[in-house]
Amino acid sequence: MRTEEFDYHLPENLIADRPPEKRDGARMLVVHRETGTLEDRRFTDFPSFLQPDDLVVLNNVRVAKARFFSDDGRFELLRLEPLTPLLWHCMAKPGKRLAPGKTLTISGITGTVTEVKPDGTRLIQWDSPIDDDRAGHLPLPHYMNRDDDETDTERYQTVFSDPALTKAIAAPTAGLHFTPDILTHFRHTFITLEVGAGTFQPVKAELLADHVMHTERYQITPEAAAAIESAPRRLAVGTTVTRVLEHCARTHGHVTAHAGSTSIFLHPPCEFQKTDRLLTNFHLPKSTLFMLVCAFAGTPLMRRAYQHAIQEKYRFYSYGDCMLIL
Length: 326
Fold this sequence. Notes:
By secondary structure, this protein is an alpha/beta fold. The chain folds into two domains: 3-63 and 140-325, QueA-like (3-Layer(aba) Sandwich), CATH 3.40.1780.10; 67-135, Thrombin, subunit H (Beta Barrel), CATH 2.40.10. Helices cover 18% and strands 26% of the residues. A nine-stranded mixed sheet has the order 2-1-17-16-14-3-12-13-15. Strands 5-6-7-10-9-8 form a six-stranded antiparallel sheet, with no helix packed on it.
């Protein structure tokens, strides 16, 4: 398949750069796969589409303050992974000025570039630990065209995110709509997938077969594995949950308690084995996430749903409205 088959035009004014006034205030486009019908609803209607024995699976990862600026304002770092408190794996801008041996300072702490990897990322060794809460920023998606502020501190995290799992570069955005009250209306469990920077990257290869998928780590507890395997029907909240469930199905045949990593690329044609329904936000053109929902619901239906959402002026992307695919 060709990447251009998953392109679409989105008016810039439909990109949500701020969260809705209320966390559960989003619109929800309901897509019925069997009939092809579309319903314009509100997210507060979400519980009404569930049956008592349905299991809702959510991602409880928390977004790290992984964006940093040097004290002189010359450099920006996106920490992909703290290998140790003093050794970071980072993306850097501008990278050309951070060759091996070069230094920069953040909050008065000096870091030295020790290695430049083939993909352009860097390893940086720090003299002492850097306080994320004081020096770090939430890495908002590039299309918001702004820095994070106090509102994002609360709203770019799900209400069920686990502080012990502050490991993501981006939020599992379908989960941003949930409130503590809504969670009381249905059975649910949590898995963890550490959303990485690759989640927003468009596919640049002309053919899907030539795309190299990014890798993300995940964890599944014994309680979650038991609940998922015993559920007669599972609703995945977000593409991150879907990737974990389908990776497990293809790798192990069923969902087990373990930690691992996945680089699964779900695109048409594709059979889903552990995901029966899906709640998701609207995704970027030519992204692996848009390809995933096309695989789940069928590309013609998804293209029609997205065109409907654009005509009805739904808000798109991380802080935008959502879609429930039944």
